[in-house]
């Protein structure tokens, strides 16, 4: 069965790699990385952002080496403001991921977690095996339809101490708008946005992590420096697998790892 799976995965991998290369050549706007504020806007009942991935560093001058208030959230009212008096909010998605220098993984070195403190002082926590279910509040929409706030992001280790192993960390959340004092959305983003935090990496190593993170939501990540292609979901023989393949040249990949995963669809 593994031999059959290898054939299937190699075929899929080549298709995905070619598709990814083509998309990058066309400079797909959805995968641009932004280091500034998140600038959402609303059209009808849908929220949009210019980018799906944002980068920032722990180590603000004011927050110390294990905290930051970036990226901020600053509504682009020219493109489409929100309803004055409503709340702009975020819903945590997924789990905390760690860049180990070669791949994104849920194997967190020292039990780290990332916490977001919202404007009401409520805490949202991301770890390798769980994420808070409660939505956070970014801010109240002003009379012009805008919100400009900076939430607090902090990293803690397993001993509940502000600390974090050197590496990059990724979280996701969806933006939505609600009535005040309500969890019911009146507008929502179709897709989550991701934030990649740098914790003590040199610029080159961090940017490699960011580049790999850009492909996570497309099901495949190819890291050119290591030649490793990771496909998050491959359906074969009635099962769903996560596979890793090593590029060997001449458009060929060697299957190096197969892990059966739960099919949540």
Précis, in short:
This protein has 265 residues and is mainly beta. 15% of the residues lie in helices and 42% in strands.
Sequence-ordered SSE layout with sheet pairings:
Blueprint: H1 2-25, E1 33-34, E2 41-43, E3 46-48, E4 53-57, E5 67-68, E6 73-74, H2 77-80, E7 87-99, E8 104-105, E9 113-117, E10 123-126, E11 136-140, E12 148-149, E13 152-156, E14 167-178, E15 185-189, E16 193-199, H3 203-213, E17 220-223, E18 228-236, E19 239-249, E20 252-261
Task: Please report the total strand number as a whole number.
Answer: 20
Give the averaged pLDDT, no decimals. Answer: 83
- The percentage helix is 10-25%
Q: What overall form do the CA principal axes indicate?
A: globular
Helix tally? 3
Determine the strand fraction and express it as a percent band: 35-45%
Low-confidence stretches: 1-31
| Whole-number count of domains | 2
Rg result: 20 Å
* Distance N to C terminus: 23 Å
């Amino acid at each position: 069965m593994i031999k059959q799976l290898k054939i299937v995965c190699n075929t899929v991998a080549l298709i995905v790699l070619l598709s990814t290369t083509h998309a990058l050549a066309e400079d797909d706007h959805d995968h641009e990385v932004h280091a500034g504020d998140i600038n959402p806007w609303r059209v009808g009942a849908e929220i949009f952002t210019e980018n799906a991935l944002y980068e920032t560093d722990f180590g603000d001058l004011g927050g110390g080496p294990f905290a930051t208030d970036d990226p901020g959230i600053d509504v682009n009212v020219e493109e489409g403001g929100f309803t004055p008096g409503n709340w702009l909010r975020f819903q945590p998605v997924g789990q905390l991921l760690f860049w180990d220098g070669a791949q994104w993984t849920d194997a967190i070195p020292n039990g780290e977690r990332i916490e977001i403190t919202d404007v009401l002082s409520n805490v949202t926590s991301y770890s390798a095996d769980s994420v808070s279910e409660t939505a956070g509040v970014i801010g109240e929409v002003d009379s012009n339809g805008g919100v400009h706030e900076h939430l607090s992001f902090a990293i803690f280790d397993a001993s509940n101490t502000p600390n974090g192993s050197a590496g990059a960390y990724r979280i996701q959340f969806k933006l939505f708008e609600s009535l005040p004092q309500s969890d019911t959305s009146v507008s929502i983003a179709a897709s989550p946005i991701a934030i990649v935090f740098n914790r003590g990496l040199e610029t080159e190593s961090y940017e490699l992590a960011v580049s790999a993170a850009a492909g996570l939501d497309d099901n495949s990540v190819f890291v050119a420096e290591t030649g490793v292609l990771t496909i998050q979901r491959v359906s074969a023989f009635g099962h769903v697998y996560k596979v890793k393949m090593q590029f060997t040249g001449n458009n060929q990949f060697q299957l190096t790892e197969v892990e059966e995963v739960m099919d949540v669809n």
